[in-house]
Predict the structure.
Amino acid sequence: MRRTCRFLLSLWAAAPLLAGADLAVRDDTGQEIRLKAPARRIVTLAPHAAESLFAAGAGDRLVGTVNFSDYPEAARKVPQVGGYDRFDLEAVVALKPDLVIGWQSGNAPAQLDKLKALGVPVFVLQPNRLEDVAGQLEQMGRLAGTEAVANAAAARFRERLAGLRKAYGGKPPVRVFYQVWKTPLMTVGRPQIISDLIHLCSGDNVFGKLDQMAPTVSVEAVLAADPEVIVASGMGDDRPEWLDDWRQWKNVTAVKRQNLFHISPYILQRHTPRLLDGAERLCAVLEEARTRRPKAL
């Protein structure tokens, strides 16, 4: 009995220390973010961050986000503070967040610095590889105190990713041009997560050696690369009209074999668990292109 009392007294004595213990998580810039307790009022400065926060079980903590944060449906009801590339600093502060989740390659660094200078904890994400999506879920779960949901979601993501690697990892390579937009003509470079997605499907991004996230290229450079497949995203679920502009270049392999495909940007250009929906579609597209190759004599 005396030993039990001593144990209880030791817990009581330690309680103030435990209550005041910081929650520390390091973000993708290498900065350690410390919170006194799991975040209860979170603002996300990118559509994919809002979506992943819901997937991590912390959607009810979201008090502000940016334009195009439209998934899941509940995200549409959250107040918006502008666009990811130029958000309203005063609107963010007015929401009294105890955590802001930023996007390194999407948010203006000067605006993130201003938030930090005001004492707002800013956790910056930059998932450039598919595995980073699972890590992002776990980070969000820790920051919001929803580890059980977040860790389970991360485990499901990793399991599904492993299945896709096993199914498509040994396939013959396919040269792919991924077109983000027509004017200017934009694609994805080596650091962009879509390049990793193409690699997952045993594709070869014809501009995958460029160091920019979203480089601008010329029509002549695309023609010289002679992709076997051209995949366009556009602005939504509808196939962009400009994808068929490539048909005028009849000597391009993708045109000769009718390998011009559209995949919705919602499942290919957001760093969320839905990326694997996009991966399944992309891998299927590349597999279709393989079946259109001339038969060996």
